[in-house]
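Continuing the batch. This is chain 6 of the set; chains 1 through 5 are on the previous pages. Same settings as before, nothing changed between runs. Recording input and output for traceability.
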Amino acid sequence: MKTRIIECVPNFSEGRDLAKIKEITNAIEKVKGIKLLDVDPGDATNRTVVTFVGEPEAVVEAAFQGIRRAAELIDMRGHHGAHPRMGATDVCPLIPVAGVTLEECAQLARKLAERVATELNVPTYCYEAAAFTPERSNLAVCRAGEYEALPEKMGNKDKGPDFGNRPFDEGVARTGATTIGARDFLIAVNYNLNTTSTRRANAIAFDVREKGRPMREGGKVTGKPIKDENGKPINIPGTLKGTKAIGWFIDEYGIAQVSMNITDIATTPLHVAFDEVCKKANERGVRVTGTEIVGLVPKRTLIDAGKHFLRKQHRSVGIPDSEIIRIAVKSMGLDELKPFDPKEKVIEYLVEDTDSKKLIDLTARGLAEETASESPAPGGGSISAYMGALAAALGTMVANLTSHKAAYDDRWEEFSNAAEKGQELMERLLHLVDEDTAAFNRIMDVFAMPKKTDAEKAARAEAMESATLYATEVPLHTMETAFETFDLLRNMASNGNPASVTDAGVGTLAARAAVRGAFLNVKINASGLKDRAKADALIARGSEIEEKAAKAEAEILDVVNSKI
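Output for chain 6:
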């Protein structure tokens, strides 16, 4: 199952009263399924920036509860601070981290904005990716004039909020207005240089940042800036879109750095920015010695970087995520200045539920002993999924061994792609190991439901049908996914390293056992369904896969035996 995570970074117009701030964050934390990552109050700005992450639905609910509490506690009529502001909750962006698109976040932001205006009576603007008009994608346009301009803007068709537009009243005077939107993840990163020269660091920053540097007469640094017909300076654009950068000297480290914000990581991923800064630094006789990530990053940032550097080496990318991330850390020198622990810097790792016990986190002995215990779960369904995962793992191993073998240098990418697909299949099947046990537990939960009244009996029967259907569909997913491993295993038996052909054969046997074992679970669980038409359809689908699996096993084993 694909992980879906978004980040929310609401800015509340209170940075001095810690008790009020705590009440707001308490309201956020009460929502199950979110993790509060940071609370950063500012006395001078009289503003607190809060960061939390989780599943989209939970994050949106937590954002609403935070906005609600802020509206109850903060009176904008007495607010003063150094930072621009318009409301008790001044701005609230939703940011895609994993398994969610920016457009999906924009849709969530618009729904949240409408709910805030409807239920809390707080006027709300939509900005950035959630904006309804191009000009409102700019936060400054929405917040123009700040809180003091609201009497003029409210009720105005062109200047009023997207939701909750009405004449300025007592409610607006108290809460102000808020802006809710969606933006891409921003990465703050510093590139360490082997120089103490701020001027050289700045020159490199100007080379790469999207804004670039001013165009000057004679092309000289000391030349007079060239302006357009409107008197505005003309810039020579830098090489990296979606970036802002500057050079500075850090006393703590005794080196200069290029400090960069990557505001569009889809256009300019971290590894692309790193390579370009290295290139421009080299052109100026300077070397990048390492990289410092400020704050957190999505997992995909390091995975994409690690794969990029592996491909540059003509090495397989079909290896575990932990190894890919290690390559990224070493390639960009993320641990040069201080230790870099992915568990503390990668958002997905921070939000993992470490309290819940997962079968796939057990040792091989632990899983065997857990299966052998008196508990009915894990049982045959989970073990079938695990056999499928082992089949994918063996196919992936052969692909990696072949990719790295000298005789296959000109085909490394072909086998790297096969290994990458194998890793993906293995992860899906490992997820099904725990999912099958979860499906069994769901049925057990139904037995604990009350059944005294007719309504309770009806609800219990409906819940049992739903749980039984789910318990039938999970092993069917195991069958379908395990069957996909045959293509990988066939390819490895036919084209992979001949010395590993028996590994492909063992993988084939494991894949067939996974399909057959999962099918037994499909049939026994389908027998408990009241909807016989649906049950028959699921069994028919399982029979089809089982028949194809038998043929695939025979074909691949013929190849294996012919090469032994």
